Amino acid sequence: MVTAMSDYRNVNRANWDERAPLHANSPAYALERYVADPGLLSGVVRFDLPRLGDIRGLRAVHLQCHLGTDTLSLARLGANPTGLDFSPVALAHARSLAERCGAAIDFVESDVYDAVTALGPERFDLVYTGIGALCWLPSIDRWARTVAALLRPGGRLLLRDGHPMASTLDDAREDLLAVTYPYFETAEPQVWTGTQTYVETDGALQEATTTHQWNHGLGEIVTALLDAGLSITGLVEHDSAPWQVLPGRMTCGDDGEWRLIEGRDRLPFTFTVQARKS
């Protein structure tokens, strides 16, 4: 069932290549709204505005940028961003969106682990990574070393992602919070097969329906950043996520964030970590 580890990139890239057109036409990504409204920011970037602070003039890189809505949002906040992703199909949509919005953004095709080779070392004031990124990577240590190598001295990281505890839950159970899947990083991936993606779309996946994913414990993430030579400057766990993690058990607020209907204080669904290179 599990192919060789060396194949995980190809398996996942094929899946994202097929997802990208579905996402580009999805009301969840609402690409036309960015074209129509020059002030629109993605919900993910807007959520972390208090932690991002003033990024005007900063040279930023958005790792695993997908369709580039977060990358565009960083540009609209005054940063000079580069978007990096391994899916050429997603990047075609990202470049089109930036062009239609009149934003000068460089999008680079590369696997995240090859980012230093693709972009150069110590070039960036800010490394930004948004929701749903780390689960596609088998080694959190290698990711953290990549982030550190991209940052110039004094540069910083801002990462918001799904909380690893939430990733252990069985989303089919509606009677209780059932811990079913690994919390810590494992040698072998969790292999998933399905035709649906995580947002409402007009179609479904037809061919590349398999993905390989990994969880990474919060302690593993923090330790990896520390081992890579970064200093942790902030860590916040959130009771919400920008998608319905547990279908039928969450409600969406005016801020576009989903929270448990009952017992919101029981579980974090996302987290934001900030770190700085000495």
Overall form = globular
**Largest sheet features:** 7 strands, mixed
Order of helices and strands: HHHHEHEHEHEHEEEHEEEEE
Computed structural class: alpha/beta
- Using only C-alpha atoms, the radius of gyration works out to 18 Å
The total number of structural domains is 1
- Look at the structure and give the CATH class: Alpha Beta
Protein name: Methyltransferase type 12 domain-containing protein
Domain Methyltransferase type: 62-157
InterPro entries: Methyltransf_12 (IPR013217), SAM-dependent_MTases_sf (IPR029063)
Description:
Pfam families: Methyltransf_12. This is Methyltransferase type 12 domain-containing protein. InterPro entries: Methyltransf_12, SAM-dependent_MTases_sf. Residues 62-157 form the Methyltransferase type domain. The protein has helices at residues 8-24, 31-36, 43-47, 49-52, 69-76, 88-100, 115-119, 140-150, 218-227; strands at residues 59-63, 80-85, 106-109, 124-129, 151-162, 190-193, 210-213, 230-238, 240-241, 250-252, 258-260, 270-277. The protein is globular, with a radius of gyration of 18 Å. Helix 1 (8-24) packs parallel to helix 6 (88-100). The longest helix has 17 residues, at 8-24. It is 28% helix and 24% strand. The termini are far apart. It contains nine helices and twelve strands.
